[in-house]
Amino acid sequence: MANPGYGKRSAPDQLPRTGHDFAHLPEREAHIAAFIDRLPEGAEMSVKLLSRCLPYGQAAMRTALNNLQRAGHLRRGREHVHGSGSARWVTRTWFSRTARGDAWWAAYAMGDVPEATPEETEPTMRPTRSRAFMLLAALGRTAPSLALSAAECARLAPEAERWFARGASEDEVRQALTAGLPVPVHSPAALLHRRLVDKLPPPAPVATRPVLRLIECARCGAPGHPEALPGGFCDLCSGARTTRRAPAPLAAEAVRSHATEVRRALWSGRERSRT
Hints:
By secondary structure, the protein is of the alpha+beta class. The protein is 43% helix and 9% strand.
């Protein structure tokens, strides 16, 4: 295990573990990825220690980890420790059994992907009906005139989901749909559709978020914005950008010409100061 606060961190919202999670990878990378996937949170992720646990040398291990990074399973960088009372950053390796694209890792670095607890990453039974569907189906108990069929609930559920996406609670949605009902209600589905559309709350203001994580280049270790590190490598290390060439030296004649111009300018300045 690494020192407290350091080491492996599992990415959130991964798919349940199966026997072919890394079948798309070469044999060596698949073997190493499966080993890392089963390591506990906070396990040390140094190349030296992984090489001692697996039958691969340090050079091969370093290459394999870079390949896992290119495949979207791994990122390395630093993360700010919340609640520490100081600007403390720790080095971490984030691993995802589910391969992620550069856009996902960029969002994760900015804190836009919610953290998942270990319990949430375990396979769970998903409800057969959505939260919105269940709310609409239960409206008939609160207001009998709003009883809906299963087909009507399924048709209106996406509109109700938009309320939840904007931060509304179930009680707020229920109150908006049942308050001040006309008597009689001729078409419950049409009335609810109208209210779901017309009373939809505005989007919550987007608050600026501090940078939570810094992704680092896997080869040179230079930190940067995630979008500037496609595949976890900076442009220079990935070969997308070559080093700038130094300008060619001036010829001897050009140097003498510049020196003459400088001396002439200095002499002119002295002459003006005397007058």
